[in-house]
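Preliminary data (for renewal application), fe (iii) ion complex.
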Amino acid sequence: MSKLITNIKQLTQIRDKDISFISAKKMDELPSISDAYLLIENGVINDFGKMSEIPNFGNIETINAKDKIVLPAWCDSHSHSVHTGNRSDEYMQRIKGASYQQIAENGGGILKSSSQINAVSSDDLYTESKNRILSIIKQGTGSLEIKSGYGLNYESELKMLEVISRLKNSLPIEIKSTFLGAHAIPKNYKKDDYLKLVIDKMLPDFIDKKLVDFVDIFCEENYFSVDDTKLLCNKAYELGVASKIHTNQFNSIGGIKAGVEFGALSVDHLEVINQDDIQALKQSKTMPVLLPGCSFFLGIDYANARNLLNNGIPFAIASDFNPGSCPTGNMNFIISLACNKLKITSEQAINAATLNGAYAMGVSKKTGSISKGKLANLLITEKIDSIDDLPYYFGENLIEKVLIRGEEIN
Ligand code: NIG
Ligand code: FE
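Predicted structure:
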């Protein structure tokens, strides 16, 4: 199957296929061709170039992208998009003054989502999650990492991971599965006993069942410690699985350093960061993943993206789509928020939400840039003046067409 896109006002984020992520120094650039064409063959980017040099491809299906920009689909490397129900009651409690931590201490928060997951059937969880994800694909998400972590017991963590596996098989986008059994301490458990269950039983079993691409832990005061994080990452490492760590959301307790030490693929959140954390990240291959939607919704600090860049540290941005701290997976909004609140340019935000996001979920060989041989996971914008219009019109969705493996999503 061949498809041609012609008259593209700007074909953007063109990179060598072998570049795995964009360094801090390069994040302000988006290599582009103006007045371009792009050829798709069997779902893959086959060729692109200037319209003035377009070969004769014969009579093939053509999309005219005059006055429109074409770029890679969003790579959302951190989500909890498999969940059920919502926590809008807690949202109102927070508006009235309760903190996220206070709500959690009173049995709400992650534990509330956990009781909802325990009560739902696997089929219902699958259908609800699939519909939720279909709607974010239409908004431009072409790759999505999804975490377990609301089960908090063997059966329900398994249920979540099996649902993620069914979603991988039924949706056209790239999906990676992260086992986040160590997300919170379930009721009636001592932390160490629960962690032992996660490390000694759940992790190896779920890896055996081929349900785990990555492992994750919430490294935070009142949740899991740095030592817990090291134990889990070490076991995952022995079993050949890379880690992605929730850390530095409310306190800096050393999760970043532990992640870097164990070669974590990413360290995520980073709203609170100190000089030791910066030192650990310098020269590491661990990608910081910033989640501005969570700061927006919880009213907590935004990650200091400029500090990372000034220290030569790149980053990705992701949605954190979940019922407690960010009930949206709309990456267009996340990009607007990133520009506005992290004080970054459109180019930096788009690099963070495409190739660096792809790296943070292990799919940068397949997607995240316009490169020959990568998947034709593409966004065609509406008629816009420049790439800056995307974050500028916050709350709008200026993506007119989403192509996943070359097929238009309707
Ligand atoms: O990334 N911080 C930990 N976990 C999620 C929130 C989970 C929840 O509140 O349901 C996060 O923000
Ligand atoms: Fe999260």
